[in-house]
Design goal:
By secondary structure, the protein is mainly α. It is about 70% helix and about 0% strand. It comes from Holzapfeliella saturejae.
Length: about 180
């Protein structure tokens, strides 16, 4: 179902106001009243879209998570992951202010969501007979390396091509796409 323009603009104003408030104060100190005042919408309008500020937060995390899941899913379909890693890096860098703000919130947390997505996509995409290494070891290694890459992207303005190549080399060494 397609969202109408007025509803889209309202949600955008609410989310923008939420991030503006999060830049100034902790999540615990932000109230729905603060959000609606800054967004210039009424409380009933807010509640037409979200149950409370936690629902808003979960919605935002889900939005970022959906994009991240699409990119990670695509990553496992590629033998050479350069293009996909650049897309992931571009997504993270373009949204780093918001994602870094979301990282400051204890629960639910965007980093936890990214971890869950990485594990889920890994389990769906990697064969159990991967190399001679135990699959749980490789999964933890993959998630750890991915999180280092994510944190690097969130703390930089561009990704060095040597970083991408090193990740590609790790993939080849672990034989993630073994149809050779």
């Amino acid at each position: 179902m397609k969202q109408d323009l007025r509803s889209y603009k309202t949600e955008k104003a609410i989310k923008s106001s939420f991030f503006n408030l999060l830049r100034k104060e902790s999540f615990n100190n932000i109230s729905v009243i603060n959000i609606v005042r800054l967004a210039e919408v009424g409380r009933p309008t807010f509640y037409n879209h979200y149950i409370d500020k936690y629902d808003l937060l979960n919605n935002i995390i889900k939005d970022y998570g959906d994009i991240f899941r699409t990119l990670i899913s695509q990553r496992f379909k590629e033998k050479d992951i350069d293009k996909t890693l650049y897309q992931v890096a571009d997504f993270l860098i373009a949204n780093k202010k918001e994602i870094n703000l979301l990282k400051t919130i204890d629960a639910p947390n965007i980093i936890h969501e990214f971890n869950v997505i990485l594990e889920s996509e890994f389990k769906k995409s990697i064969p159990n007979n991967l190399n001679k290494l135990p699959i749980d070891y490789v999964k933890e290694l993959y998630i750890s390396i991915s999180m280092v890459f994510i944190n690097h992207a969130l703390n930089t303005d561009e990704i060095n091509e040597d970083v991408i190549e090193s990740l590609n080399q790790i993939q080849r060494d672990l034989n993630f796409n073994s149809d050779d």
